[in-house]
């Protein structure tokens, strides 16, 4: 057994980084050439370090930096106790999240102080669990109740994309702006990683073009579960029409429209299963959505639901109400993927492959980046998250951050590099 004081937090290091991102298109615009992330290291009295990764945009980074010094002396074996520290330090300033409502770039639902607090807590919780697991010599999934599977399935996350960012050379993926390009991209994902499910990010082109892309995918991959996610871009009428047209083709349609009422109506009228990472993104949004049968699959995300334990709470709630659960992602590196994989390994009834953006990233801050085999990541039984920090890579990516003025994800602004008059589209767009 470790010494009683071994798990005490000696220091918390918060490092903002910029990671390269290809020109992936979505409702709002396009991903920038680089996007911010925050890496957290929690060092204990025993000398071990636990890792966490989350959003790097200014409001998150500011809040994380504010809370970090207050964690010294706390114990990594009691991460739940840090929740009150986060609540106290971030107080009641509702303006901490710079912009209310659905953020131009985030595409992940409401923004309020409670969600910011949940996100800040989450990164520290993951780092504590990693540190605690290392101290005890057990994997994080064991601290969460134990894994029920030894591999976690992820889906191919397809995007319409340009062949390159303006002024840059072509990337390893090529362009995908029509059904043929989308099928070609899906083949690359299947060949390189063996994915067995496919999600297409929609809301980029007229819905009929996106329906055509889904039909082309169905023809090319007759047995694979397919999903389409326009991030709430459509009107109720369009959403209903697409749902009817793609019934039996999609395993689920993700956020066709904005709002619980409109989602409930589409499901009621068409029977199409609907998934969300936009209209149910916090526990306070669950009662109305579930009582109106507005969502059939909640896409959990420990980064904003409040950590790994909260993800298990969400899964239990979904199980109780007969609602499916899977996982949303944003652009991320290996620390996040490790955390996603550990918690997904513990959720008993995970019936859909989880989302991940990780194949789009060419760099990492872990010494041995994860591999996808047969579309899955093997669940590590090594202590903690089962990863090691690549300190040189972290320093390089931090230097990129200090040398750049990119501080926030801004898909709308990035689109102006090609369409100078571009503004955030008004919803519903179609
Ligand atoms: O499922 C989703 O809505 C997402 O993954 C949101 C992301 O912001 C996605 O749209 C992206 O990366 O552009
Ligand atoms: Mg989504």
List the helices and strands and how they pair.
Layout: E1 9-20, E2 34-44, E3 49-55, H1 58-67, H2 82-90, H3 113-136, H4 140-143, E4 151-153, E5 156-159, H5 179-193, E6 198-201, H6 207-220, E7 226-229, H7 236-246, E8 252-254, H8 260-270, E9 274-276, H9 286-291, E10 297-300, H10 302-305, H11 308-320, E11 324-327, H12 334-346, E12 376-378, H13 391-402, H14 411-415
Parallel strand pairs: 5-6, 6-7, 7-8, 8-9, 9-10, 10-11
Antiparallel strand pairs: 1-2, 2-3, 4-12
Helix pairs in contact: 1-3, 2-3, 5-6, 6-7, 7-8, 11-12
Describe it for me?
Helices cover 35% and strands 14% of the residues. It has helices spanning 58-67, 82-90, 113-136, 140-143, 179-193, 207-220, 236-246, 260-270, 286-291, 302-305, 308-320, 334-346, 391-402, 411-415; strands at 9-20, 34-44, 49-55, 151-153, 156-159, 198-201, 226-229, 252-254, 274-276, 297-300, 324-327, 376-378. It has a 7-stranded parallel beta sheet, with helices on one face. A 3-stranded antiparallel beta sheet has the order 1-2-3. Strands 4-12 form a two-stranded antiparallel ribbon. Strand 9 (274-276), helix 9 (286-291) and strand 10 form a beta-alpha-beta unit. Bound molecules: 2,3-dihydroxy-5-OXO-hexanedioate and magnesium ion. Magnesium ion binds next to loops. The site of magnesium ion (MG) has 6 residues, from loops.
